[in-house]
Amino acid sequence: MDLENQKRVKEFAEEYGAENLVVVLGAAEGEAAGLAAETVMLGDPTFAGPLTGVQLGLTTYHVCEPEIKKEFDEAVYDEQVSMMEMVLDVDDIVDEMNAIREQAAEN
């Protein structure tokens, strides 16, 4: 997650409260999704951005996870996401997201 997006997320959490935000990621790989999720949940693991040492604890999903996918209008999801979903390793992404959420729950 780039520094500008970290700044935006931090500002939104301060303005609206972390309990009122959900982060929906769209990274193409599990590792990238996990890194972004870790950043907004536990703080920037690269120690380079505005979320260094800041544990926002934001609820975070990937757009291809079943829990969030069911929230979309099916026609919109088909039009906007389904083509990419066919080439993604969705199982890897889901596994990575679950691992980060488990890690966050332990903290």
Offer a quick outline of the entry.
With 107 residues, the chain is mainly α. The protein has helices at 3-16, 30-42, 66-69, 74-80, 82-85, 90-106, and strands at residues 22-25, 59-62.
- Strand tally: 2
Shape: globular
Question: N-to-C SSE series?
Answer: HEHEHHHH
Strand content: 5-15%
**Whole-Å distance between the termini?**
21 Å
Structural category is mainly alpha
Taking pLDDT < 50 over at least 5 consecutive residues as the criterion, the unreliable ranges are none
Radius of gyration: 14 Å
- Helix content bin: 55-70%
Averaged pLDDT: 96
Main-sheet strand order equals 1-2
Count, helices: 6
Major sheet characteristics:
2 strands, parallel
What does this structure look like?
- The protein has 107 residues and is mostly helical.
- It has six helices and two strands.
- The protein has helices at residues 3-16, 30-42, 66-69, 74-80, 82-85, 90-106, and strands at 22-25, 59-62.
- It has a two-stranded parallel ribbon.
- α2 (30-42) packs parallel to α6 (90-106).
- It is globular and about 35 Å long.
